[in-house]
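stage 2 :: seqdesign
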């Protein structure tokens, strides 16, 4: 009886030893090499997995940065602090300009007219697919149904008086709202930008005024006033070059429609 127990124990022990050796060999054979740089970068990232960097999530971004396929400042949520840490890991310095989303429309309920009353699903994309691109008289204007609001994970954008407005203190420039807007009204601008053109219309001045009291009429008064070649009217709309803009404010002072805010 005792001999049988000893034999059984020996068989179990030998079997366990063989299995352990086989597992050890298999572990070595199929071992996935870990990129320590990638792991260190991933630890720096905030973990929101918002996709604002253009990758599927923080893991994918970390892998891309480690491989040199994405910049050290690729995470819009982490901003400058995270970029600085990652740049130390990958080597080199990186300059990070903090950005925020900006809605290029001043067409609030009291300033912009509607062509008809829209009663469909409250989605900007669906409204934009109707005749003329939506209910607004200005086919370039904010439709105000809040698709951008739903896309934002940071509670940084809301509909106020018929148009989307960004809270720049909450915005992390993830870019999801820019992708969601069917009118392409939202763009990322420098946080420190002192002047912005709050209009997106490419129509001629008289047509703009017919549907909105606050639209850019392309008069070029701003362009003539700028001493730094920082603002030009292109396709009937003023556009600011933030690399050249000094924030002097002369363009805003001379704008007859007060569309430069």
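stage 2 :: out
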């Amino acid at each position: 009886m005792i001999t049988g127990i000893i034999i059984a124990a020996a068989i179990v022990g030998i079997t366990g030893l063989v299995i352990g050796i086989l597992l050890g060999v298999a572990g070595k054979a199929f071992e996935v090499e870990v990129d320590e740089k990638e792991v260190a970068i991933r630890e720096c990232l905030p973990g929101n997995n918002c996709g604002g960097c253009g990758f599927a999530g923080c893991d994918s971004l970390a892998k891309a940065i480690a491989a040199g396929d994405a910049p050290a400042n690729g995470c819009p949520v982490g901003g400058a602090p995270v970029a600085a840490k990652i740049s130390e890991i990958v080597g080199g310095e990186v300059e990070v300009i903090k950005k925020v989303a900006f809605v290029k429309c001043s067409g609030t309920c009291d300033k912009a007219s509607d062509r008809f009353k829209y009663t469909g699903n409250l989605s900007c994309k669906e409204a934009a697919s109707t005749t003329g691109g939506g209910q607004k008289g200005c086919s370039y204007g904010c439709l105000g149904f809040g698709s951008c609001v739903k896309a934002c994970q940071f509670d940084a954008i809301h509909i106020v008086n018929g148009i989307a407005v960004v809270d720049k203190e909450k915005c992390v420039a993830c870019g999801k709202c820019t992708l969601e807007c069917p009118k392409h009204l939202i763009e990322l601008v420098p946080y420190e930008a002192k002047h912005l053109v709050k209009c997106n219309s490419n129509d001629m001045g008289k047509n703009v005024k017919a549907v909105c009291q606050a639209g850019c009429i392309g008069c070029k008064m701003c362009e003539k006033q700028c001493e730094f070649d920082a603002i030009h009217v292109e396709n009937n709309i003023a556009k600011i070059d933030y690399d050249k803009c000094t924030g002097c404010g002369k363009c805003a002072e001379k704008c007859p429609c007060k569309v430069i805010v």
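stage 3 :: structure notes
- The two ends are 95 Å apart (CA to CA).
- The longest helix spans residues 2-29.
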